[in-house]
Amino acid sequence: MLRKLVHLTWPVLIAQLALMANSVIDTVMAGRLSAVDLAAVGIGASIYITVFVSVMGVLLALTPTVAHLYGAGRHSEIGEELRQSAWLSLLLAAIVIALLRHPQPFLTLSQLNPVMEAKVRAYLDALSWGVLPALFFRIFYGFSTGIGKPRPVMVLNLIAVALKVPLNTLFMFGAWGLPGLGGPGCAVATTLTATLTCVLAWSWCGRIEEYRCYGIFARFSPPSPARLLGLLKLGLPIGATFFVDVTAFTFMALFIARLGPVISAAHQIAANLAALCFMLPMALGNAASVLAAQALGAGQPQQARRAGWTGIGGGVCMAALTCLILAWAAADIAGLYTRDEEVRLVASTLITYIAFYHFFDAMQGVAVNLLRSYKKTTLPMVVFALALWGVGLGGGYLLALTDTLVSPMGARGFWLAGAIAMALAGGMMTAFFQHESRRALRR
After folding, report:
1. Cα distance between residue 49 and residue 57, in whole Å
2. What span, in angstroms and rounded, lies between the C-alpha atoms of 202 and 137?
3. What does pTM read for this prediction?
4. Is the Cβ–Cβ distance between 244 and 381 less than 8 Å?
5. Which of 110, 305, 369, 443 is 20 to 30 A off residue 405, Cα-Cα?
């Protein structure tokens, strides 16, 4: 089982790291412009992630659906699920584009100065053009991962990240007669790479012989209410879970923006690093979930349980190592992101909090993916709402910006409350997986 898990994990990890590298590149290159550009990119990215990831989470229902069908040998039904997911993507894209073009509710919370608000609006407007290609690519991701072939996604994400630096340089700093757009220029580059990877993914899929058995392009399918409702029943709680997750951190970023560009920029570095560290447990959880779902589809619950505990154990061990590295090298890591000494000092302090936060984030990241393989998505949504909104965001606000509990801790208060929230979520998700995997054995 460990060999199978590693075989699936490493392409998913590289694909996720390549995807995350785009955000790291944006953060580092914006940091070379100014603290205002770095903060604007951070705030804009937080708003975008809140909206896009929440609706994209609905499409994550495709991965366990495909994996169950694959494990059961019902390959010909997979193509129909993909076509119905495409219809669903059109609706989701319309929602995201509307929110990105009209972000005033988010901007009101952060109380930005006019210069920064203009940059954030330009950033979001540029990203809105890449929403539909990005969602169509997520369908390809769910399909490839569900059938246990994540390497094409890895290759395409590597192509995208290879283009990111030259495209960022072109649009952020200007070249060949094009004016530099500053921070918003990285959003233009992101839209172009999203469109390219979408076109390459489906062009490649249509040409490969071994994909013919799935009937992806066999016929045109109008919207099927029954199949769409099936995807929504599984996917809406996943999307709501992502919404809870990302809004907690988006509102954290917006509240921290009140403390000024330096603190906001330092928080952006810490948040970016936390997301980067999460890529390994996310990849492990994704791989373990696929193996578990395929085993469940094949009527092998014992194999599914074994895949789950192997993933959780691996995730916790790697998280412990990551925590030690973060705590030991906090100042050096912050220096990689920015040359601004004031921002670097604040960021290095926040990174020590990330070390505690990450351990529990890794635990819940693997467990929540495993629960999706059992098609259990509602309880994780409830747990996340209580933990992240209640303890993380609510408790963080009290610790960071008020003197209700202690003297105001600033950004550190949000990260301390976030670590406590993740500890609650991680423990409850793991316990629920234990319960569900045992129950599957008794059926």
Report:
1. 11
2. 8
3. 0.79
4. yes
5. 110
The closest of 380, 367, 364 to 437, measured between CA atoms, is: 367
Burial of residue 35 (CB within 10 Å: 0-12, 13-18, 19+) is: buried
Query: Across the chain, which distance is largest between two alpha carbons, in Å?
Result: 68
Q: What single-letter amino acid sits at 252?
A: M
Hey, what are 330's tokens?
Answer: 């906090």
C-alpha span between 401 and 404 (Å, rounded): 9
Report the amino acid identity of residue 337: Y
> 172, 175, 144, 170: which is closest to 157 by C-alpha?
144
Q: What is the CA radius of gyration of the chain?
A: 21
Burial of 220 (0-12, 13-18, 19+ CB in 10 A): exposed
φ, ψ of residue 178 in degrees (nearest 5): -85, 135
Those residues whose C-beta lies under 8 Å from the C-beta of residue 176, and which sit 6 or more positions away, are: 170
> Mean pLDDT by 10-residue block, N- to C-terminus, for the chain (443 residues)?
71 80 80 75 81 83 87 83 91 91 77 76 90 93 86 89 88 74 84 93 82 80 86 86 80 79 82 84 88 88 89 90 88 80 83 88 91 88 89 86 77 87 92 89 76
Instruction: Choose among 263, 267, 254: nearest CA to 415.
Output: 267
Q: What is the dihedral of CA 364, 154, 31, 195, to 10 degrees?
A: -110
Cα separation of 19 and 275, whole Å? Answer: 11
